[in-house]
Write a structure and sequence with these properties.
single chain; elongated; mainly alpha; C20orf85-like; 0% strand
């Protein structure tokens, strides 16, 4: 026990030599590292970052029809309205053979 107390005392005495730099204020440490600001270079037009375009400009979501009263009515209740269907071509083609038969 006595050796532990002695080691702690020695460590406390040596602490300022090893770790004393941690006591210095941050402003003092950063003050030496301040560099001259570089002049900003104007980027060409093709390399500039464009401003963010809001999603609403590209994606238009129409209001949904009223919520159906039955659970069976939930199946395709939005896509049953002509303006809200998911199929763009209005005809589902499942495979190559179906495409050839339709021609």
């Amino acid at each position: 026990r006595k050796k532990c107390v002695e080691k702690e005392g020695d460590a406390a005495k040596r602490w300022s030599d090893k770790w004393g730099f941690l006591k210095t204020p941050l402003e003092e440490l950063i003050g030496d590292e301040k560099k001259d600001a570089k002049p900003k270079i104007e980027l060409p037009e093709h390399m500039r970052i464009r401003p963010v375009t809001p999603v609403e400009k590209y994606i238009k979501v129409l209001p949904s029809p009223p919520v159906p009263k039955t659970t069976q009515g939930f199946i395709g209740w939005r896509s049953a309205v002509p303006g809200l269907e998911l199929e763009i071509d209005h005809q589902i083609r499942s495979c190559k053979g179906a495409l050839c038969r339709s021609l």
